[in-house]
């Protein structure tokens, strides 16, 4: 009887702790939405959660570390190619172009940029990263190019302008992104670009391409085996696939909260919509493609990218507020979205700046078709 009562008391105490954690988390998120948490406190809170993630991710022995990675790779093979794509797009990527023109650089590159020098500007860093993609993918004038998950078309438009004999096919599942890229092609008199509106997980084509680019799309997929099998069919016999993905240098994981106290993990990206691979993770998915080269970039580049975005956001808050208010229909919603994007930038700054850029970073891979 005593054992039963003790168990009941322990369970009740645990339930109370869980409820308190949920209450504390909800209150913090409410304050973040209102913008009443000072910037330095936000950074401290993020660093605390990142430290917890590192303690969770690093294992005490190499064998345990390897087993975690292999087990995780095997688990993804039992999943769909992707989940929750519509939720992710509606919450994060369908934002007014006028806002992106303020926060991003002139190319509207929504992923990491490359800062070879301290004096490099955001505009220069956008071009530097796009040129790095083309160099590492060995792009040549006259190639057929496929840009999967093309965003606002930074890479598509860069290649179309720089390599005028290339034919570029861009795929997005965002209507606004498609229209924006098409408008830019008209303004720049580009006739070598085709933009397709499609869900990559369901898309199919009989065409093959000399170069296929997958830039920061992999993180929102689940079953890498099925995804790479699909992409391999779109590569020409001598074609190359270039992939960029963010990663942790050692471990891979579903980007889900660690526990009830973890407010940070699903603050930017909804739970269930993202994976953080390890730097070497794709080496476990060479069923239909083969890795022929592999690079990593210090997380300092992506941290600096987010820092530059935040500077532009902070310098134009009133203008951005008017844009969001016109789009969303209320001042309250506009303020909430501004603070969301500030949190987005802080998250990237702190995460990729951890340990001087040597924890979370960017991975580049070049692959051939088997």
From TrEMBL:
Underlying gene: CNMT
Record-given protein name: Coclaurine N-methyltransferase
SUPFAM superfamilies assigned to the protein according to its UniProt record, in alphabetical order: S-adenosyl-L-methionine-dependent methyltransferases
A GO term for molecular function: (S)-coclaurine-N-methyltransferase activity
Listed InterPro entries: SAM-dependent_MTases_sf
Keywords from the UniProt entry: Methyltransferase, S-adenosyl-L-methionine, Transferase
PANTHER family: PTHR43832, S-ADENOSYL-L-METHIONINE-DEPENDENT METHYLTRANSFERASES SUPERFAMILY PROTEIN (PTHR43832:SF1)
GO biological process: methylation
Top-level taxon: Eukaryota
Family stated for the protein in its record: Belongs to the CFA/CMAS family.
A Pfam family it matches: CMAS
EC number(s) given by UniProt: 2.1.1.140
EC main group: transferase
Organism of origin: Sinopodophyllum hexandrum (Himalayan may apple)
């Amino acid at each position: 009887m005593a054992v039963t009562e003790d168990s009941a008391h322990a369970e009740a105490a645990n339930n109370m702790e869980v409820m308190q954690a949920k209450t504390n988390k909800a209150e913090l998120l409410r304050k973040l939405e209102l913008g009443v948490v000072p910037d330095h406190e936000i950074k401290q809170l993020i660093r605390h959660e990142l430290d917890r993630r590192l303690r969770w991710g690093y294992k005490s022995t190499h064998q345990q570390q390897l087993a975690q990675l292999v087990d995780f790779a095997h688990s993804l093979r039992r999943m769909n190619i992707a989940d929750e794509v519509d939720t992710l797009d509606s919450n994060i990527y369908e934002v007014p172009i006028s806002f992106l023109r303020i926060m991003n650089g002139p190319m509207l590159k929504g992923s990491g940029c490359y800062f070879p020098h301290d004096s490099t500007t955001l505009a220069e860093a956008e071009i530097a990263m796009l040129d790095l993609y083309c160099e590492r993918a060995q792009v040549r004038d006259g190639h057929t190019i496929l840009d999967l998950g093309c965003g606002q078309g930074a890479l598509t438009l860069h290649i179309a302008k720089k390599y005028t004999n290339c034919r570029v096919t861009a795929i997005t599942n965002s209507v606004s992104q498609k229209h924006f890229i098409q408008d830019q092609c008209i303004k720049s008199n580009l006739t070598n670009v085709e933009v397709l509106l499609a869900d990559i997980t369901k898309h199919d084509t009989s065409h093959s391409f000399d170069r296929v680019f997958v830039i920061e799309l992999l993180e929102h997929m689940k079953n890498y085996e099925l995804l790479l099998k699909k992409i391999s069919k779109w590569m020409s016999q001598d074609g190359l696939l270039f992939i960029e993905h963010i990663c942790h240098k050692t471990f891979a994981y579903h980007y889900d909260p660690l526990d009830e106290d973890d407010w940070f993990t699903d603050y930017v990206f909804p739970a269930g919509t993202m994976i953080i691979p390890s730097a070497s993770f794709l080496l476990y998915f060479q069923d239909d493609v083969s890795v022929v080269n592999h690079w990593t970039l210090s997380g300092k580049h992506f941290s600096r990218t987010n820092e530059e975005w935040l500077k532009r956001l902070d310098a134009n808050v009133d203008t951005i507020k008017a844009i969001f208010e016109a789009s969303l229909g209320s001042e309250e919603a506009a303020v909430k979205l501004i603070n969301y994007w500030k949190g987005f930038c802080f998250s990237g700054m702190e995460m990729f700046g951890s340990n001087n850029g040597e924890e979370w970073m960017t991975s580049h891979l070049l692959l051939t078709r088997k």
